[in-house]
Amino acid sequence: MTIPVALTIAGSDSSGGAGIQADLKTFAALGVYGASAITALTAQNTKGVAGIHPVPADFVTAQMDAVFGDLDVKAVKIGMVAQLATVGAIAAALERWKAKHVVLDPVMVATSGDRLLATDAIEALRRQLIPCADLVTPNLPEAAALLNEPVAVSQAAIESQGQRLISMGCRAVLIKGGHGEGAESVDYLFNQNGVVALAAPRIVTQNTHGTGCSLSSAIAAFLAKGEELEAAVHDAKQWVSAAIAAADRFSVGHGHGPIHHFHRFY
User: Which of the 8 DSSP states describes residue 134?
Assistant: First the structure.
């Protein structure tokens, strides 16, 4: 039996709700074989991040080379890159291996509010990684930070920011509306053909740890399975919405608990 392979390049979450752990759970839940290249170790739980230990950039390269040199990688998800040197290492490896279907989640701040990306790495993210991506998936604060602007509070402002992010060189941008307000959470998918609004009911729960990681890895999973981009985004959003809706079935930790990656099974 042949199974599609997806690679996640991201940080490790010791509590298991976000980062590499969330990505691998997402891949498994969606029938995709998951490989990983770890960029940083974090000491964190549902209440916050206690420490970050970056992995040396040359070892991130070694992990990527090991995976691409053996596995038939159909899609790549990039999450927390942590530091400046790692940005260049990832970009170089993606180019060297001609990576397909690259989804970049520009992780800057954790759900708890803790910073996950060094300030000096943001410009390198703009210049080196965004042009490598088929899709970039910022939330509203991340989109604003990438553009050095205030957080968008209107549809017109969101559309303006989306088009300017496209101009940085990626093929498409998904601005996530989870930080917005209203009865619906609306994500906006931008590409060269225009914009598509994707709405879902806003779910009231504090168990949202790892939502962004899981959405971007779900998109990568559907791309690895052969879906076109817009269909992959639509299916990933539906899956994540169901995982959030099921998050209160169990209690993990005392802060922002994880979503339920395996809601289809138990």
Answer: S
